[in-house]
């Protein structure tokens, strides 16, 4: 096995697909210290700049002093702390759903919910560009799994029409994590009504950012239905860690009884929920942060004038700069790094072959100077970065 692993690693290296971790020595922020050097970063999903917010840090410290740091037992034994409960109620109210359930991560929420709700006689319908953990959930559920082309409502309808499954679940990212575009959720919901299906919306990148007071993509699109189940992550715009699922009370009650990644695990420490209650307050009263974020998005789109690489259309904090070739995307990322700017090169299998890209993510913590610096270094890179080798 070890020989096989080494051969696989060597192959990744020659294909320009090797990934590296950087050692972070500062809080997550727009200016970070990584591998001992200072950088301007466009890497994080901390869209509102809350990951190092003093109010959240204080809430966590205060709660740790009072409630300790360990949950100590699973939720169904004695691990369900008052802070967890308060946060669930606050999240449900915030997104306008009857009930909510906390999970330790978004990954665990997706695999837990889909595998609990779906079984052998059921069918899951997923956008081809969905986040990997939605696919893992479908796989774990043993339901039949149908993947439709990105945002293709017509193809999805054909699949639903042909399905004889007992229960049907459409699963989609609300805001696609590597493209930044928004799924046609209103059309999906109409299909749910028509074909007796349910819609599971992964709002990892919309919660906190989109909709009135940052209530998320569903409120942004003004969608309400008992057929809707939403998942929001709490480690991105919310700045901490974890995730929640919100929906009808019946759905949440059922998940408490049946979602393995909820039942057979120790919940996140109670002080994290206290920090998230503080975060939720910052999100709700965070119109100024969101205005700053959207100003930075507009500034980047207005000032970036490249001929060699293209920004794909996105109205959100995720701005994908499509390069195409793996090596060229990596070379561009490395060029920026040499100028003190971090933007990750995203390559297959995270994105389709031939669409390697720089994933620029913007934050309310960025200033106009930060964005202008990125723009000017990208302009200089057009002439400086060698073209990729055709694969
Ligand atoms: C980040 C992400 C997840 C996973 O959330 P974690 O809390 O980081 O595990 C799920 N879905 C999407 C679309 C994501 O971007």
From TrEMBL:
GO terms for molecular function: 8-amino-7-oxononanoate synthase activity. Residues 39-377 form the Aminotransferase class I/classII large domain. Gene3D superfamilies: Aspartate Aminotransferase, domain 1, Type I PLP-dependent aspartate aminotransferase-like (Major domain). Its cofactor is pyridoxal 5'-phosphate. The modification N6-(pyridoxal phosphate)lysine is found at residue 236. It comes from the Bacteria. Pfam families: Aminotran_1_2. Keywords: Acyltransferase, Biotin biosynthesis, Pyridoxal phosphate, Transferase. Pyridoxal 5'-phosphate binds at residues 106-107, 177, 205, 233. InterPro entries: Aminotransferase_I/II_large, AON_synthase_class-II, AONS_Archaea/Proteobacteria, AONS_Proteobacteria, PyrdxlP-dep_Trfase, PyrdxlP-dep_Trfase_major, PyrdxlP-dep_Trfase_small. Catalyzes the decarboxylative condensation of pimeloyl-[acyl-carrier protein] and L-alanine to produce 8-amino-7-oxononanoate (AON), [acyl-carrier protein], and carbon dioxide. NCBIfam families: bioF. Homodimer. This is 8-amino-7-oxononanoate synthase. It comes from Methylophilus aquaticus. The lineage of its organism: Bacteria, Pseudomonadati, Pseudomonadota, Betaproteobacteria, Nitrosomonadales.
């Amino acid at each position: 096995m070890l020989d096989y692993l080494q051969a696989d690693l060597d192959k990744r290296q020659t294909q320009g697909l090797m990934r590296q971790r950087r050692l972070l020595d500062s809080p997550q922020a727009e200016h970070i210290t990584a591998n001992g050097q200072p950088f301007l970063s466009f890497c994080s999903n901390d869209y509102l700049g809350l990951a190092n917010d003093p109010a959240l840090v204080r809430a966590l410290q205060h709660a740790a002093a009072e409630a300790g740091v360990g949950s100590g037992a699973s939720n169904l034994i004695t691990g369900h702390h008052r802070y967890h409960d308060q946060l669930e109620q606050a999240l449900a109210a915030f997104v306008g759903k009857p009930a909510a359930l906390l999970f330790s991560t978004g990954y665990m929420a997706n695999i837990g919910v889909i595998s609990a709700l779906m079984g052998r006689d059921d069918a899951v319908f997923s956008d081809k560009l969905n986040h990997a953990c939605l696919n893992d959930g479908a796989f774990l559920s043993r339901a039949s799994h149908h993947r439709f082309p990105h945002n293709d409502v017509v193809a999805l309808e054909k699949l639903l029409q042909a399905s004889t499954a007992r229960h049907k679940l459409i699963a989609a990212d609300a805001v696609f994590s590597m493209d930044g575009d928004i799924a046609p959720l209103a059309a999906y919901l109409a299909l749910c009504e028509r074909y007796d299906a349910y819609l599971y919306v992964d709002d990892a990148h919309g919660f906190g950012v989109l909709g009135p007071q940052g209530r998320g993509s569903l409120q942004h699109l003004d969608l309400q239905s008992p057929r809707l189940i939403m998942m929001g992550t709490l480690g991105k715009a919310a700045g901490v860690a974890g995730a929640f699922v919100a929906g009808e009370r019946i759905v949440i009650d059922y998940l408490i009884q049946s979602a393995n990644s909820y039942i057979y695990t120790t919940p996140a420490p109670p002080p994290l929920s206290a920090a998230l209650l503080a975060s939720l307050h910052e999100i709700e009263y965070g119109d100024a942060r969101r205005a700053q974020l959207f100003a930075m998005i507009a500034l980047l789109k207005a000032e970036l004038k490249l001929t060699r690489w293209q920004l794909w259309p996105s109205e959100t904090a995720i701005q994908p700069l499509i390069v195409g070739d793996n090596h060229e995307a990596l070379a561009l990322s490395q060029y920026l790094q040499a100028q003190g700017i971090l933007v990750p090169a995203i390559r297959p299998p995270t994105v389709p072959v031939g669409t390697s890209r720089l994933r620029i993510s913007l934050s309310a913590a960025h200033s106009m100077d930060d964005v202008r610096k990125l723009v000017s270094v990208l302009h200089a890179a057009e002439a400086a970065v060698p073209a990729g080798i055709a694969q």
